[in-house]
Amino acid sequence: MRVPLSWLREYVDLPATETGRDVQAKLVAAGLEVETVEQLGAGLTGPLVVGEVLTIEELEGFKKPIRFCTVDVGTANGTGLPQEIVCGARNFAVGDKVVVVLPGAVLPGDFAIAARKTYGKVSHGMICSSDELGMGSDGDGIIVLPPEYEPGTDAIELLELVDEVLDIAVTPDRGYCLSMRGVARETATAYDLPLRDPALLDVPGPNAEGHPVEVADPFGCDRFTARTVGGLNPEARSPVWLRRRLQKAGMRPISLAVDITNYVMLELGQPLHAYDRSRVQGALGVRRAEPGEKLTTLDGVRRTLDPEDLVITDERGVIGLAGVMGGADTEIADAAPDPETGRVSGTTEVVIEAAHFDPIAIARAARRHKLPSEASKRFERGVDPLAAPAAAQRTVDLLVLLAGGTAGAGVTEVISPSAPHTVAMPADHPAKVAGVAYDRETVVRRLQQVGCDVYGQDDLVVTVPSWRPDLRAPNDLAEEVIRLEGYENLPSTLPKPPAGRGLTDHQRLHRRIGRALAAAGYTEALNYPFISEQVLDQLGLAADDPARRVVTLVNPLSDEEPALRTTLLPGLLGALRRNDGRGSHDLALFETGLVFHPSGHPPVAERLPVDHRPTDEQLAAINKALPVQPRHAAVVLAGAREQAGWWGKGHPADWADAVEAARLIARESGTELLIRAGQYGPWHPGRCAELAVVIDGEERIVGHAGELHPRVVKTMGLPARTCAMEIDLDAVEAAGTGTVEAPRIATFPVATQDVALVVDAGVPAAEVEAVLREGAGELLESIRLFDVFAGEQLGEGRKSLAYALRFRAADRTLTVEEASAARDAAVALAAERTGAVLRGA
Predict the structure, then answer these.
(1) SS3 string of 636-701?
(2) Which residues contact 689 (CB under 8 A, 6 or more apart)?
(3) Is the whole model's pTM more than 0.70, yes or no?
(4) What pLDDT, in 10s, does the model give residues 424-445?
(5) If DSSP codes are grouped into helix, strand and coil, which group holds residue 221?
(6) What is the mean pLDDT of the segment spanning 521-545?
(7) Of 109, 111, 476, 543, which residue has the fewest beta carbons closer than 10 angstroms?
(8) Which strand (E) or helix (H) includes residue 27?
């Protein structure tokens, strides 16, 4: 909302010394978002005067039309003689009154005016357009003024070129500030000055002579006021003061009748619409649109209406989209001369509509048709329903005054009975909310300044004003008291958190895992939890895969991604693809987050109370209906895992790095991870590891790791040989031992024994490792696979696995015999379980 300071002063007697910056500071302190204060006419100095065009000479021989004019500027030039000016515009004629800037003046933008020779003539000044004066471009060229202004009149004052305009970002709860009336009320309160309310008009009561109105949907339209004005002069133009106020408020002047309705909307906040009465047939009506109905709106677009749209009708059908935009069939006709008679014709009689519509219906209609308007912006934020009669009367008065019209005797008002909204509140409630002592007198005074009627002593009964539909509860009233008393007066106090035990084990684990992955070179990527079901096809999931059972949102942020994710991979792979496409080819990303699976129970739509804690039964019912939400961890890798350099060769990311990420997570959880060859969805069938843990004696698959299938890589546009891992963190945590024990420092030396075992190629190395660990007993400190070899000397279908076994005792130095005995026991068990043979034996 753009608020000219000169207009604001009509309703509040601000001190003459107050600037726009001062008013801005006051309104900001009162809770309004005043973004800027625009200085109109900054740097403008005269002489800038009204001139009358005396003669026009067309200059020939130039690439564009040029005119040499003489203009009467009165005595403003010091001589009283006509001023000679060269001008290229053609929208004025001899006898027109124009705006002339004389030599010595400075226009906005530090544009100094001086006499200069151009097109073979000396131009002593310039005939101005609105754009050159900083009034905005209206596309009409030179400003042509009404004929009543005398030559030499100061145009700076006439056109109100010097002013300050406050630009206010009106929040949805303060729709009343989309009007001069609302901003003036806030200004009067901030300065503790009286308000001259522009809505306080003498309005005649309804009678049977008014234009007939039929409201079929009283919920959608609870108030409809109709007035008529006849005998309008179709040639009447909007006066300069009216056009300038609209321009300063950011609206373009159009025609007198339309300008007046826009002016009253800006003044009182009530949107209005004027119909050409000769084009309206029968009674005006309000109803919902019928399926298939169409309307051509004022912007010339033919629109198909929705059954939820609220529309204005006459006997022919729909003539307007209520609260949004009128129809072209009843548009006010511009004045135009008849080509045969020369008589000027146009709209001479209008019907004025001032109605109050349901905010939700208007908001949805404006969004449905992608048709935001000044009217819909106000209706959807809440318009004062009691302002409609005053707005209609103000419009009638201006049409009578400026267009020579005659007000019709008829007044139509259709009203759905409603009681004012009241709120019960203890007088000390604002003090409890703010933590500041407000006595009863302060609370009552501030609420009355807002416009409330207050009754009672310790327990107040507050009647909310009609223009504040946002005041619905005691906390709303408390906020009004607090903001008017000044947010800056609230003391700064640090919150006192209750004593607690810090983070839970669950939270500590997630933080440890995040730190461990970051330390291993992974970068965390946070992605939206929304997916499309098509991405599950791209991942190659089977038709009966549980991950395909998704939870779909009723009102998604994007229609392309309406489902909640069942896996973290789509988001991570999308982030990897974007980064690779932007030049980052060596990538290692990770994410921990929730995935969502249907609970199998129908959702519950019960509205929980806000004034007390919900019951255990209510919470249990809602939790039962929520999706199952386990927490997963996932990583994706592409490019080089280790860079090559002077230190040696690097190596590309491969399936082993993805498996190691799973091992890292398991170590942080204190869990023994079982790893074996597997096959699932997006992973390469020959390079996929199945991850499992043991929970309560039962083995459970918790994830997969490895290289992605080439088909998935191609379909999703990923780098070649992309690898990934995803694991169920909740299951891993359940299998863990809890807090990870810190490693102890050994005081005795380690004994290392190496063994190379030849096994069938199909025997997993992890299986051999597990058997060796079991056979070696408690003296085994660690085991590491350091070599895998396959060759002709081993035989077809055979491979050699070389392990380094580290033995250590906590209470003594091991002898060679003890270490060798432990190694031999491990090898013997491996031979028994896996058929392993010592290489070279």
Answers:
(1) EEECEEECCECCECCEECCHHHHHHHHHHHHHHHCCCCEEEECCCCCEEEEEEEEEEEEECCEEEE
(2) 655, 658, 659, 662, 675, 676, 677, 678, 704, 705, 706
(3) no
(4) 999 999 999 888 899 999 999 9
(5) strand
(6) 93
(7) 543
(8) helix 20-29
- Three-class SS of 707-740: EECHHHHHHCCCCCCCEEEEEEHHHHHHHCCCCC
Please give the Cα distance from 599 to 603 (Å, whole number): 9
Residue type at 47?
Answer: P
Helix H or strand E encompassing 375: helix 374-379
Q: How many Å is the maximal CA-CA distance in the chain?
A: 128
The residue with tokens 């007390």 is: 612
Q: Are strands 587-594 and 523-524 parallel, antiparallel or unpaired?
A: parallel
| Per-residue model confidence as pLDDT tens digits over 742-767 | 777 888 999 999 999 999 988 888 88
Q: What is the rounded average pLDDT of the residues 531-558? A: 91
What end-to-end distance do the CA atoms of the chain give, in Å? 92
Pair 727, 675: CB distance under 8 Å? no
Q: How far apart are CA 300 and CA 294, in angstroms?
A: 12
DSSP letter at 744 equals P
User: Tens of pLDDT along 322-380?
Assistant: 999 999 888 887 766 666 655 667 788 999 999 999 999 999 999 999 999 999 999 99
Closest alpha carbon to 170 in 42, 61, 269? 269
Residue 99, token pair as written in the block: 């705006």
- For 580, the token pair is 């690779």
Range list of β-strands (E), 174-282:
213-215, 221-230, 273-276
CA torsion angle 450 454 460 464 (round to 10): -50
Residue written as token pair 């159009």: 254
Q: Give, in order, the Cα–Cα distances in Å from 41 to each of 156, 163, 248, 562, 823.
A: 9, 7, 12, 52, 95
The upper half-sphere exposure of residue 113, i.e. CA atoms within 13 Å in the direction of its Cβ, equals 24
Q: Which amino acid is at 330?
A: T
How many Cα atoms are found within 13 Å in the side-chain-facing hemisphere of 211?
Answer: 27
Radius of gyration of the chain (CA): 41
Q: Are 311 and 305 in contact (CB under 8 A)?
A: yes
What is the rounded distance in angstroms from the CA atom of residue 212 to the CA atom of residue 337?
Answer: 32
232 exposed, middle or buried (CB, 10 Å; 0-12, 13-18, 19+)? buried
Helices 180-191 and 256-268 pack at an angle, to 10 degrees, of 30
pLDDT tens string 157-198: 898 899 999 999 999 889 999 999 999 999 999 999 999 999
Instruction: For 432-482, give the DSSP string.
Output: HHHTS---HHHHHHHHHHHT-EEE-SSEEEEEPPTT-TT--SHHHHHHHHH
* DSSP conformational letter for 592: E
Parallel/antiparallel/unpaired status of strands 631-638 and 587-594: antiparallel
Number of neighbouring beta carbons within 10 Å of residue 204: 14
Distance of alpha carbon 83 from alpha carbon 156, whole angstroms: 19
Count Cβ atoms below 10 Å from residue 672 Cβ, excluding itself.
15
Is the Cβ–Cβ distance between 736 and 508 less than 8 Å?
A: no
677 CB neighbour count, 10 Å cutoff = 14
